[in-house]
Amino acid sequence: MNTLLPITLVFPPQGHFTQPHLAIPCLVAYLRERGFSDVEQRDLSLEAYDHFLSRKYLARCAERAHARLPLDPTGAADCLGFEDARAFRCAAEARVSADAVIEGIEAAKRVVRGEGFWDTDAYVPATRALYHGLRLVSAAHYPSELTPHNFTMAYSNDRSAEVRAALTDEEQNPFIEFYRTEILPGLVARRPGVLGLSIVYGSQLIPALTLARMVRQALPECHITAGGGFLAYIARKLMATPLAEECLDSLILHEGEGPLAALCEHLSEGKSDLSSIGSLLWFDRRGGPARLVENAPAHPIELDKAPAPDFDGLPFDKYFSPELVLPFDINRGCYYGECTFCTLPTVIGPGYRTRRAETIAEQVVGLKERYGTTHFNFVTDCMPPGMIRDLPDALLARDAGVTWWSDARVEPRAYTVEGARRLYAAGCRKLLFGFETATPRLLKAMKKGQSLKAISEVSRNCAAAGISVTWYAMVGFPSETLEEARASTAFISDHEGIVREVSLQTFHIDEESQVYRDPAAFNLEIIEDDQADLALYHDYRAEVGMTQEEAAQAFDEMMGALREHLPIFAGDTILYFMQKSHYFLHLARGTTPDAFAGECRRRAALRRARGPRGDLAVRPNLRTLELPFSYTAAVKLLGSPLARAARPDFLTGRYVADAEAQAQARLTPLPRSPRVLAYDAENHDFVELAPDGLRVLEALREAGDLDALLERIDAALPGAQRRRERLSRFAAELHRVGVLTPRKKPQPRQTPPHPHHPMQHGDEKNLDQALSENQEAGELVEEVGEELDIDNLDLTV
Question: How does DSSP assign 537-578, residue by residue?
Fold first, then answer.
């Protein structure tokens, strides 16, 4: 065997950018243990994010977005329809924020990766800047959308013909240029004999196959194989399409270590007959047209004897976190395996296996010493009761000195008061439990095997021990009513101070689930789509309970309630929940869940408490842009359940056939309404103003601050004091939303271009009328007019 065979294993875009994914390091460790010395691993998802979120690339995106997206995509029509609303939003955001985002992106990356991470007031704006940088990338490749959590294009990844078209569309696919300029030259120079692609998420399918196609053209002798969780669902469908033959040579089903090692051994020995390699789907190209062959399943590896993951070669300094969090698999599969909505026991296979607690402790300590980190994400579908008891003992016996978080199953006999304390002492700082619903009959239909009493008891014990508790929750399970969804919200609210986060999703049907295999038992009708030859999720009609659309509306209602009752979900601190490991790192550093909740409350309270001050002035770095339609209304339109179903996000995961057509037909177009979009370059926030509001800001800039503007109301005129008070209250609201800020240092007043005159009596009357319309609704506030002509001003924000 030629152990010098060059092997490159890749985690393609798009995945989390806060910590490494486990898949490739497990494969690397297994191959290296078997003597393959030339194994390279690349986290191209991370490399892509780091490349895209750079000054040079974002500057090019700004130019491209400006050229591709007109600010008025309707061509001066009277209304903005759903089909144009996204283009309008992308164009508006790109134009008003581009300069500030480009200027601040490197500083934002330094904050998230450095000491600024621990300061909430620095972290939140920096994280927003990263999000807005990705919006700029998305605008440049419209209608594609890249976020920290997802990647979508106009092409659907459940149709092979559309996926095939996406691989060559340079306008929409940002990864073509990225691979061509940043990745392919190095691969060509390296000339790997094997390129392995780990496709864990559906968002990776198009980026992964884009790379495979380009490597196939540049290195036709390289064997390209793929595997991963997402492909476990659609492998046979994908390999049956012309798309697969153009991009791949083989595909590994389920667990990859054994089959990949066997494949590399065969290729290193020059063997073309791959029929003896377990769990391999491959194209036999010997003697004529390619023939698809599916081999018998492979035997699972003995997990307890498998090596610890090998992270050597990954660019740790590029992950978007200040400290490294390493994933580690303590088991594979699910020891319970009964939940009717779940597919993991079917696709993660084969079977359930675990490492011994002593092995886990030994390998974790080894990883700690090797990579200089004490933080771990224990990857498990659910930790078995025995492990809950044994693992803390093993970690404490080794004096491991690590902190960790993991998913968990509600097991009252294991998560006792003493058991939870033992877990905390062994470094456990966060556990995520499958709560799902507060309706007992639905728990029974789900076959969860747990009671509400057990959920409450386990969560209370963990919280009392200092472990942060997260619940997975679901809305829209077959037959669930709106009242039952609200009961779940109430149950969560009743556990305020115990439950810190809720990962809420709408129910969707995976192809391998029991619900899909027996829909009649759940009063469902599956709606098949003959064109969706790569389908994983399926549309359906519910005979009882909420429809999919009603469930999506219930989702919005529940999220609103969670924002009220869970401090980490309130306002902009929800960003800690959105970024994998970021909240955990605070816990690992010694911050208690109560203390972190207090910090979230502090930030929200400070914003609410911003009051009137005489030195309030317009932020010096505020950018403004005049718009033909309301940006706020467009955002609201795109946030409706109908609109979200057309482009499923990582939270809802909702799939509805013909959702885009339904949205276009049913959503009410927005009337033309000139507005002004402001962008705060310091806090990286968008605020919308009425056109007259821009004139107000200009007047404030001219006057210097609020006191100077108030002086223009002649004290001798009737009602002057009342008007000043109302103007001050209004300025306080502008202060709250960030448009105005106290001047840090006294500055000389600007000399007006004409003699100064206080407001005249008629002007005050119109100002009074404008202020009488001031009202706060969510993030919407009313604006004021400037001194020159305030008659009939529209002063909304």
Answer: EEEEEESSS--HHHHHHHHHHHHHHHHHH-GGGSGGGHHHHH
Buried b (16+ CB within 10 A) or exposed e, 437-468: bbbeebbebbebebeeebbbbbbbbbbebbbb
Report the length, in residues, of the chain.
797
- How much is the average pLDDT of 485-494? 97
Contact predicate 248/214, CB 8 Å: no
CB atoms within 10 A of CB 286: 9
Report CA Rg, the chain.
28
What is the full DSSP assignment across 712-766?
Answer: TB-TTSTTHHHHHHHHHHHHHHHHHHTSEEE-SS--PPPPPSS---PBPHHHHHH
Quote the CA–CA distance of 504 and 518 in Å, as a whole number. Answer: 25
Strand partners, 526: 540
pLDDT at 754: 36
Q: Is 781 exposed, middle or buried (0-12, 13-18, 19+ CB in 10 A)?
A: buried
pLDDT digits (tens, 9 = 90+) for 283-323: 999 888 999 999 999 999 999 999 999 999 999 999 999 99
Dmax over CA atoms of the chain, in Å, equals 100
Helices (H) and strands (E) in the chain, counts: 31, 27
Q: Which residues of 395-419 are buried (b: 16+ CB within 10 A; e: fewer)?
A: beebebebbbbbbbbbbbebbbeeb
Please answer whether residues 795 and 692 qualify as being in contact, where contact means their C-beta atoms are separated by less than 8 angstroms: yes
Helix axes 417-425, 452-464, angle to 10 degrees: 40
CA-to-CA dists, residue 106 to 127, 140, 268, 339, angstroms: 12, 19, 43, 45
For residue 777, the 8-state DSSP code is B
Please write the tens of the pLDDT for every residue from 717-736. Answer: 777 787 777 777 778 878 88
- Whether 211 contacts 175, CB under 8 Å: yes
Which tokens go with 636?
Answer: 């609201």
Give residues with Cβ within 8 angstroms of 732, minimum separation 6: 610, 611, 612, 613, 616
Query: Which residue in this structure is represented by tokens 């009337």?
Result: 671
